[in-house]
Amino acid sequence: MSAAERGAPAQSPQGAPPQLSQGKPAHPSQRTAAQSSAVDRELVISRIIDAPRELVYEAFTDVRHLSRWWGPAGFTTTTRAFEFRVGGVWDFVMHAPDRTDYQEWITWTELTPPERIVILHGETRDDPNAFESVLTFETLETFEPDGTATRIGMHTVFPTKAQRDEAVEKYHAIEAGRQTLGNLAAYVTEIVRKGAEG
Question: How far is CA 55 from CA 23, 65, 161, 171, in A?
């Protein structure tokens, strides 16, 4: 099973349904040629998290954070190398609940703190099936006393429609992505709760 098949990196607070689309523009006339060619290769998943944007972004920047929440339910992570910078690499192994190990490789291609992260994700540096994910972090005002939440969006584009379809249909990439963002939400909201308790 490849990185794409696991959907490594939704759902909103209190179990509300995630925001999910197939990446289609509101009207066909708004599509550019590049958008039209990518629309059948992409997945878009988002989740609202009751935590400040800076904290949610930080959870992607430090391996001690990533190793606590990365991956679908039941997966754990062992890091071999980690350097968070443009051009830096995260080389790691994901351990499935059935004890199967999966080699993973990510490089960061764009960092705009605390708004946007772009990654290339595959099994190895030269993986021809590597896919790009754009992560966006948007501050939302809430009616809670602390007043802020974060909408995280994950827009993934696969090299081919067949790879995208296989990831969704055979390996449940949408659900895996939701579980990954769910793990992130649980992790950062626990940090917020502990901070509030002093």
Answer: 27, 10, 34, 30
198 residues of the chain, pLDDT tens digit each = 555 544 554 333 333 333 333 333 344 444 455 555 789 999 999 999 999 999 999 999 999 999 999 999 999 999 999 999 999 999 999 999 999 999 999 999 999 999 999 999 999 999 999 999 999 999 998 877 667 899 999 999 999 999 999 999 988 999 999 999 999 999 999 999 998 886
Instruction: State the residue for tokens 């990954």.
Output: 180
- The answer, as to whether pTM is greater than 0.90, is no
Among 33, 94, 41, which Cα is nearest to 69's? 94
78-103 burial, b at 16+ Cβ within 10 Å, e below that, comes to eeeebeeeeeebbbbebbeeeeeebe
- Three-state DSSP at 2 gives coil
Dihedral, CA of residue 176, residue 179, residue 181 and residue 186, to nearest 10: -160
- Here the tokens at position 139 are 């501050």
> Quick one: 43 exposed, middle or buried, by C-beta within 10 A (0-12, 13-18, 19+)?
buried
Strand partners, 131: 121
Q: Are strands 116-122 and 131-141 parallel, antiparallel or unpaired?
A: antiparallel
Torsions phi, psi for 39 (to 5 deg): -60, -30
